[in-house]
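Known limitations

Files may contain more than one protein. Parsers should not assume a single record per file. Below, a two-record file is shown to illustrate correct handling: read the sequence, read the token line, then continue until end of file.
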Amino acid sequence: MVGGGVSGAVMLANLKLAPTLPLFLPGTVLWLWLFWRYVGGEGWPRSTSDRRRTLLRAGKLTPSEWGWALVAGGLALAAVMGIAFMTYRFAALPDAAYRAPFEVASYPPWTVVSIFASVALTAAVVEEAAFRGYMLSGIQARYGWPVGIGLVTILFYLAHLSHAYATLAFLPFFLAHGLTMGLLVFYTRSIAPGVVLHAVSDFIVLPMQYGVIPSAGQSAFVWQGWLLLLAGAASVPAFRQLARTMALQRVDMAR
């Protein structure tokens, strides 16, 4: 709540006072940097530094690990986004699901881009740190990975019930999204790839959701489902290669 609340308050104040000068974007980046450093172990109290660092799971990856994590996660998220587009097209969603909290399109183009960038970055950093970082670490340590990923996925969905689109029709999307992000953490032991992919996917989808740009769901090759199946199938060998890459890295470190 604190992580997202500060970014939101800064953005709304800026839009009210100077909507043509989106200083809230660099302000958001600065705030998220401070937030990330704190939840990752920096700052007071020093007695909790190690615990915070462990819970966040923001370990460094090699270039090859980053590459395969982004390929595997990106393909899986493409399939997940396909589920979202099909849900938007065929499910009976409330009208509020397609409305932004305020008139986004009324602002200048550079402000609109800054709004979506700020929202996407905030969601990615704060939600991944909270759910796939702290929450998953705590549950997984006691009950194991399957229970941890499953519970966090359900709680992630429940936390989004305040959003108009998060009806039961969107439950398959949230289940697939949670599995994808959970698998990335399981294989890499880091939330960093998930943060990047979360930010990119939100930045792409939010303008479509709120009608600023045409939705990809209007294209037949998206909503017919074959792209979803193709991307999902391609992610399986990519995740296997990611697992092999991570295993080789652990062997090299052991030597």
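...continuing to the second record:
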Amino acid sequence: MDFVKGQLLEVIEWTDDSRDTLSFRYPDEDKEIKNGAQLIVRESQTVQFVYLGEFGDTFGPGKHTLTTDNIPVLTTLKSWKYGFNSPFKADIYFLNTRLFTGNKWGTANPIMMRDQDLGVVRIRAFGTYDFHIVDPKLFLKEVAGSDQHFRLDEFADTMRSRIVSIFTEALATAKVPVFDVASRYTELGAALIPLINPTIKAKYGLEVPIFIVENVSVPPEVEQAVDKRSSMAVVGNLNDYVKFQMAQGMERGSGGSAGGLAAEMAVGLGIAQQMMKDTGVPAAAAATPGPGAAAPAPDMLSPGEVANMLKVSEGDVLAILESGELAGKKIGSTWRIKRSSLDEYLAK
């Protein structure tokens, strides 16, 4: 009798001391389960019986006595008739239904999307999400299978790719400008939950109650272009900005000695004369150029030539061309500026 009792499982329980276990198959060591055995299911656990490859009964938290009365599905599968009680064998899976928090997701490669401000742009995004098991049978069937100890890291890559795919589709459908996404992270994460959950629940038996978007970024070259455009917006009219800078220099020089002020005015006058010379504007006392003088500048100028003449960056010239302050002709992807248009701009 001692030998027979040793071959029977009388108390079935699982104490989880890990933080990353999704499902655990109870090790029966080829023992049979005693009819009337005690099954102890703790909070945040669910137990699923599997008999000969078919799903049996499911038990939630609490203490359960395993008899033919409270395991009706298993009773039907085993074909116990007339209430006949005997030991039985079945696979017992403990599933962890607690909330798994702080799981990271992110785009492995940039996402191509069409933005109303930037056109076609590549973006990257990352954040975190929480999930828990809501359908034990579907989770065992589609995810864990017959794995004895299924851990979170075995499923992380699959979940990450699935969430990134849904995030990409949702962002494209929402048509939210990239510049607005940064100010709407919380709103965007909450809006994505109804789109993520139906797919995740139907495919894996999981639910995502919290989805957080932490960052959406564009390539560095796009950020630099945006910074330049922002700088031009702050500067405003370039001609007025140059005049303001000269006035500031003269104001600072007025607090010094007369010699210092005269020197600064001389330098300013020299710069002005050089600019007038470069732009073809005749000085009041300019002499007729002699035979050795430089050839007159061409009538059509490139943005680079204008930038050299104005002592500014080519990006600044392109910005005032785009804004219409400086008239120019765009041929393909190249700008050409008439000297007369530049003279009119400088005379404003």
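Parsers that stop after the first record will miss the second one. For reference, the second record is described as follows. The radius of gyration is 38 Å.
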